[in-house]
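Bug #77: duplicate submission created two jobs. Keeping one. Sequence:
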Amino acid sequence: MSIFVLVHGAWHGAWCWQRLTPLLEAQGHRVVAPDLLGLGDDQTPLPGVTLAAWTDQICRVLDAQAEPVILVGHSRGGLVISQVAEHRPDKIKKLVYLTAMMIENGESGLGTFGKIGPSPLQDHLVIAPDGASMTVKEVGYKPSFYGLCSDADVALAKRLCRPEPLEPSNAPMSLSARNYGRVPRLYIECLRDGAITPAMQKAMYTAQPCERVITMDTDHSPFFSAPAELARHLGAL
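Kept job's structure:
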């Protein structure tokens, strides 16, 4: 049995894993799903939220575990798990990119997003006047993130999603072959994703080959739209 550490994506919080967590636990696994600083129930002011702060936060989570973990990052969470792997390669059994940003050394999340796009999500983004955060127009939630989800799921997300700090996605990745490069990684692509499109996903896992690519015929949020299938894939790792 494994320890899973689940890192949510932009705007979301640990609440997005609420259906997946009990399914993994029913298989005998242990699950740790924190709110990243400034998101979910965490009240850290967004101007102080950085990729380095998120990295330190998840490194502390890994340090508290008795054995190496399977570290899963969804969407923008891919930036976090990559950087954590650079700092704690020996604490990670496997990296799992769940339709996630898998960025090369020296690149940033938003920079890469612009290069490998276009994404329909870009039409729905709203940058705060102070430039510190961004939100999603209400009309963009379902087509971008929850295309196969119920109206109740969309309503829940609209209620719980919070402004996303911009600094983490603008920060350049600092990755090395010696650390990050030696951690086994796999990619779960989602073929009906309206945020990180299948073409964008393929561009990333082609540029940084993974030991395995798992394909799901789901939207951007398989933890809602296909939790049982996702749990099967993860539980088999």
